[in-house]
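User: I'm writing a tutorial on reading structure tokens. Could you give me a worked example: one chain, its sequence, then its tokens, then a sentence or two explaining what the tokens reveal?
Assistant: Sure. Here is the example chain.
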Amino acid sequence: MRPKLFVAGIWVVALSASASFASPLPISEVVAMSRSGARPQDVIERVRASQTSYALRGSDFGKLKAVGVSDEVLDYLQQAFVSDVDLLTRYSLLGPHLGGCSYCYPQPVDLDRMVSGFGIASSDVPGRRRAGLPSGVPDWVSPSLGAAGKQVSASDIVDMSKRGVPDSQIIDLLHRSSLEHVIGIGGYHIVREHAVTGVSGSQLARWRSEGVSDAVLDALQARFLAQLVELGQLRYWNWM
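And here are its predicted structure tokens:
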């Protein structure tokens, strides 16, 4: 079973090393259920039962919202993705090794074609290792530069975008800064299954509707995930 993770008040099920679910749920089915009028909880239960998570960029949440996916489902999808990235970080240090198991990792997504999955939405090789990042973390996440540099909040980034600061300047700031108040784990010496994030799927969708560009949202999500990995590595080293 996937260990549980708490984000923005919702419990989710995280990554499974079990081979019992070899066919991840296509993202198109999440959209189809949402557009058909299914209750958000029914959509969430369908995704949870499939043990699928999706490697969603920051702008993807607004795109899903635009085609009918509810805030509750968006929050679950972000939460499940974060759960899996956290668990992959733990696995990279403590095991087990998942190898090239395509259904064990967050599924790549191409919302322009409304498809998901390795070899379908992306040609990425499942489980490919990159320096500084666990296997299974998507290619668009770069290793964190550490805590040095300016501290900036997600709301600061949103405000800059709304004021008309050029995307290139905002993205450069993100690369050189650490995000504040977006991750909490309750301390490095507490053995717990929960992580907390201040960047929810519905927030990302709302910011897109308010005019924040896709490039800035994607950079914000990537920076957040990089810091999640960095903090997880510090945390799990203390378990060894």
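What the tokens reveal: Helices lie at 27-35, 40-50, 60-66, 71-94, 154-162, 167-176, 201-209, 214-237. Residues 139 and 170 are 21 Å apart (CA to CA).
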